[in-house]
Design brief:
The structure is a single chain. With about 90 residues, the protein is of the alpha+beta class. Helix content is about 40%, strand content about 30%. It has 3 helices and 5 strands; from the N terminus they run H-H-E-E-E-E-E-H. The chain has helices spanning about 5-15, 20-35, 85-90, and strands spanning about 40-45, 50-55, 60, 70, 75-80. The radius of gyration is 19 Å and the shape is extended. This is HU family DNA-binding protein.
Length: about 90
């Protein structure tokens, strides 16, 4: 599902206009992004947790030349699925 499809489904389920749904989805994404930029964790009960992890500097290889290169330290966003989401994706068979 792409963002446009998500917005269309959101509009349909909430009976909002397409532009209002677009605004709502974009606002949620902006809020999560802003909080992650500040280093906060965003948890949505039953769905999951968005967080930022630090990656240390390391050495890598250029696949084309085999040359050793330095890869700088960075931060990377991370998502950890909540129990309810995991259960929905992996239903138990009886």
């Amino acid at each position: 599902m792409k963002k446009g499809e998500l917005i269309a489904e959101f509009a349909k389920r909430t009976e909002m206009s397409g532009s209002a749904a677009n605004s709502a989805v974009n606002t949620i994404i902006e809020i999560i992004t802003e909080r992650l930029k500040k280093g906060d964790t965003v948890g949505i009960t039953g769905f999951g947790t968005f967080s930022v992890t630090k990656r240390a500097a390391r050495k890598g290889r250029n696949p084309a030349t085999g040359e050793v290169i330095k890869i700088g330290a960075s931060k990377t966003p991370r998502f950890s699925a909540g129990a309810t989401l995991k259960a929905a994706v992996n239903p138990r068979k009886k």
